[in-house]
Amino acid sequence: MSLVDYPGKVALTVFTSSCNFNCAYCQNKTLKRQVIEELSEETVIDYLDRRRALIDAIVITGGEPTLRVGELIPFIGHLRERIPGKLVKLDTNGWNPALLARLMECIDFVAMDLKSLDYSLFSDVSIETIRKSLDLVKAFREHEIRITLYPPYIKREDFGELAELCRGASRIAVQQYRRIDGNDQEPYKSGILEEFSGVLSRISGAQIVLRE
Description:
Elements: E1 11-15, H1 41-50, E2 57-61, H2 72-82, E3 87-92, H3 97-103, E4 109-113, H4 127-139, E5 142-149, H5 159-165, E6 171-176, H6 190-204, E7 207-211
Parallel strand pairs: 1-2, 2-3, 3-4, 4-5, 5-6, 6-7
Helix pairs in contact: 3-4, 5-6
């Protein structure tokens, strides 16, 4: 049960395995590996259904959920049938704008990470693909763009261009990078996060949520 994964709602979170990015600060590295044995869709939906009275929403995260190209939309459809009236949120890294476009009719809230101006640092995805996904995300009535300030990926000289990419968004979360085992990169000082939040607010016009 979560009070933070869907803003203002009590939610249960479904984690999918595998990810096509190799981010140096990933908090869910164990989910990057393809899991040999997985829970069946029926098992997952039964679990959620038994708790329907306790929740407002269901969050699908990862890993990267949109890697499951042929499974994701049917799964959401089955959720809607079995547990009607619950909000559905998707977390994504934005690698698949074509699937995002199809999901506009299926989900209530989408959150996308904007990780850098240089996606070659951790993936094979181009910034042009990310731009397409950002434009789609902004078209969702409920959306959030999340930016984790990991210094090797987010440079201070990039703040203005990143803010331009976010222009037209309604909500942006600026997140402090958290150290993980094996990565001793120093995080930015809190003043840098506040500086970036100010640039984002001025250029994008979005509501800024600061998560330190």
